[in-house]
Write a structure and sequence with these properties.
Blueprint lengths: L2 E5 L2 E3 L5 E8 L7 E7 L6 E6 L7 E2 L7 E6 L4 E6 L8 E8 L15 E2 L3 E5 L2
Parallel strand pairs: 2-11
Antiparallel strand pairs: 1-3, 3-8, 4-5, 4-9, 5-6, 7-8, 9-10, 9-11
Length: 126
């Protein structure tokens, strides 16, 4: 059974950092694109970052460049999202997702992903 499980969220002060994890099961992580999305209350889900099969470079949305770093450990079937210098605007539920790399290998549009985790809450507050 396909499962994606996020962890690592929590309450942090502005300027702090977090590293989120996404554990995948039911398929090989190396055989698909993995992405991170986030959704703040009352706002649409937005893409943060994605990585494709065999690609060591992550792709980021414009808003995520600089403070967000995505990585993958295919042997552990786990993806990560490191966030630094957190601010209150980063408060959201963070989701990981998976899709086929065809025809578009790395979109940041939520409708293009077929498998989702339950999300992990990140709250940034003083």
């Amino acid at each position: 059974q396909v499962q994606l499980v996020e962890s690592g969220g929590g309450l942090v002060h502005p300027g702090g950092s977090l590293k989120l994890s996404c554990k995948l099961s039911g398929f090989f992580m190396a055989y698909g694109t993995v992405a991170w999305f986030r959704q703040a209350p009352g706002k649409p889900r937005e893409g943060v970052s994605c990585m494709i099969d065999g690609d060591g470079d992550a792709h980021y949305s414009d808003s995520a460049k600089g403070r967000f770093t995505m990585s993958r450990d295919n042997r552990q079937n786990t993806a990560y999202l490191q966030i630094t210098n957190l601010n209150p605007e980063d408060t959201a539920v963070y989701y990981c997702a998976r899709r086929s790399p065809f025809p578009d290998p790395c979109p940041l549009t939520w409708g293009d992903y077929s498998s989702w985790g339950q999300g992990t809450q990140v709250t940034v507050s003083s």
